[in-house]
Amino acid sequence: MIQQYLRIKAEYQDAFLFFRLGDFYEMFFEDATRASQELEITLTAREGGGEEKIPMCGVPYHAAPNYIEQLIAKGFKVAICEQTEDPKQAKGVVRREVVQLITPGTMMEGKGMLEKENIFIASVTPFEEKKFGLAYNDLSTGELKATLIHGDFNELVNEIASLGAKEVVIPSDLDSALQKALKERINAALSYEDEQTAGENFAELLQPVQHQQELAETVSRLLHYLFRTQKRSLDHLQPVSFYESTQYMKIDYHSKRNLELTETVRSKGKKGSLLWLLDETKTAMGGRILKQWIDRPLLSRSAIEQRQELVSLMIQNFFEREELRERLKEVYDLERLAGRVAFGNVTARDLLQLKRSLQQVPAIMGVVKSMGGGAAELAEKMDPCTDLEELLEKAIGDSPPLSIKEGNMIRDGYHAELDQYRDASRNGKNWIAQLEKQERERTGIKSLKIGYNRIFGYYLEITRPNLHLLQDDRYERKQTLSNAERFITPELKEKEALILQADEKCVQLEYDLFLALRETVKSYIPRLQQLARVISELDALQCFATISEQRRYTKPTFSEDMVLHIHNGRHPVVEKVMQAQEYVPNSCTMNSEREILLITGPNMSGKSTFMRQIALTSILAQIGCFVPAEEAVLPIFDKVFTRIGAADDLISGQSTFMVEMLEAKNAIDHATKNSLILFDEIGRGTSTYDGMALAQSIIEYIHDEIGAKTIFSTHYHELTALGGKLDRVKNVHVSAVEQSGKVVFLHKVKEGAADKSYGIHVAQLAELPEKLINRANEILSDLEEGKPEIRQENPPAVQKQSDRVHEEIDALDEQLSFFADKKPAKKNENSKDHKIIEELKSLSVLEMTPLEALNALYSIQKKIKS
């Protein structure tokens, strides 16, 4: 048996092998050791034929799904190895084989599957330089998409990260550097598949891309992997849908994180994100498509306006929309139900959910049609699948059990033979009940009862105190209990055979009928998937309408000349979180004369919020939703780049400043004049002058070379001078006032630069010690009067810089003295050389900042060179 285990395990080295032994799945050797740690189960050992014992652990087969899910959640794979022959008929070791490989990207059921989130598995194929094929699939819904990525490897990584793919299938010979980058930068399992030829089985699925060789290879790689690992029907897979990244607004992974589109930076959870705000969907399908729309805003103006029209119709038809929402509540996850039908793990309860969902469709079609316009056109695309609903109504009972092997699933009247067996079973049980009544009367034992168990079948049970009343020779003792005796009679055994035979045939026939019904339902999968697509779109659109009406959003219009004008705009999420508090709205105008807004103001005043709300307003508009403003005219942005937040990338060992520079580089390399760039305090991760120089250089480069709409917040007030030097740079600030020595943030964006930073006031709000605050005010006052005060004992860094200045002074003094000595003339106190030396010696570096001291030194060096 262990040899059999090792042979099978050799083919699944990267997975835990759940090896079926009777009522348990067992693991051996290294699998057992690791599983005992990961699952916190007992590790035992078994004799292996040699001196050493084999590590071993196991889990009961009925509890296995929970353990498998735990391993998958940790990024592992699990190969399910079943007994494929009856142990009673086996000659030697029972035949076993792997029936499925469960991986992070191929989960079909489990508590870890969130109903409103896709579980994507992706495949990658590299082609010529800077070109990659990417395909991805959600096995639970059958969705299959593909695209070509033109650009460097970062473009590919960003696309996969944005998808949130749980697993990536790659060729085994993929460049090791690329493999390393995938492992480090994407939280996904890596799997290998080298087969990428399009087999006959895939012809229909590949039809849309059959003439695009690169895409066909990439999709084929993924399909080969899925069929090889799942080893079952995948009839629910949909034909591949090709898309181009140029169809959608490009938002890189870091920008999505910074803008908190689907999860927050701090909690990594949905609450507090744009998705959390918008999600008023009533179905799981609607929730998933909403997330996809947020991830991929549209670039086509006509497509955006088509969604806007439907949102407007739903806002205008309040009562119809409310009825639609109520109906959608009763619609189950049609996409995943179809997937379970194809996969072969659908239950009678699932089919009951499918029937109840289909029963809602005619009413949904009616209410949507009544709205008119584009809504009526959308309703026409809905297929109610009436024939399937009628079939399920006839076939499935109202309260089926969870298992499909227990019977009681099929409704009476569906199948004549089944009805006959049921009649025999039910009449037999009625006869049993009648017999119990007769025997009580005949024996006078009122407590006599007829029971049943699997070992003895039906029996008559009499308690010990009543045994003396039994005078019947037909009673044959079968079992003795502590307080009762159990008997059988010939007529009871005869009836038992009839009843049990009917029950067994009933259960088997119901199982066979259910499998046949499942095959019939499988033929409806394409129609169900089309219906699911329309319902999910309706759900997302009603969600936009509901939110837009509740939160007083406005329908935006789009400009042809990249003009942005938002009147009294609001940050959608912050506004909701503030609830009863009044949110301070802000306007923003950007055009050909105002391409870059340089925004200054104190910390906590709302600079970052203002910047984010511009980006979120644009994203909301381009997914077809209304926007939080009194009026909005917007350009259609092709890309959004952000650098907001100062979290170090500790995992990859990158500092705040390096992250700043990499994200800035990404924006500068890929932005166009139709892009939106948000830079929040670029340069703060390094020294003041370095940071200021970089910030100014970045602004100038964007102004001169790119021309993208840019909002740049900074604490470097010196940069506000750019507003007068660069034509398209304008200064704005977030206002604040000082009252009774404390700062009050007005959160209002106004024209011009801020006059103060209020840094110490913010520290006061944070309740730093009063003594510390007072000392900071003293130092600030001295600095503002031009009298920098530095303690006698210099900090190490200052002292080191001071020492360096003095060393350079001494070296120059010696150098000048040497040249002076070479001159024949006697030293003259009024000579230029002497004056320079005296000037050097008079430098009081302790009264200067290190930078001031070095600048003074270098000015003297210029004199020397002259």
UniProtKB/TrEMBL annotation:
Keyword DNA repair carried by entry: yes
Domain DNA mismatch repair proteins mutS family per the UniProt entry, residue ranges: 675-691
Residues bound to ATP: 601-608
Database matches in CDD domains: ABC_MutS1
SMART domains named in the record: MUTSac, MUTSd
Keywords, comma-separated and alphabetical: ATP-binding, DNA damage, DNA repair, DNA-binding, Nucleotide-binding
Gene3D superfamilies from the UniProt entry: 1.10.1420.10, DNA repair protein MutS, domain I, MutS, connector domain, P-loop containing nucleotide triphosphate hydrolases
The keyword Lyase belongs to this UniProt entry's keyword annotation: no
NCBIfam families xref list: mutS1 (TIGR01070), PRK05399.1 (NF003810)
Role played: This protein is involved in the repair of mismatches in DNA. It is possible that it carries out the mismatch recognition step. This protein has a weak ATPase activity.
Family statement: Belongs to the DNA mismatch repair MutS family.
Protein name per UniProt: DNA mismatch repair protein MutS
UniProt source species: Peribacillus deserti
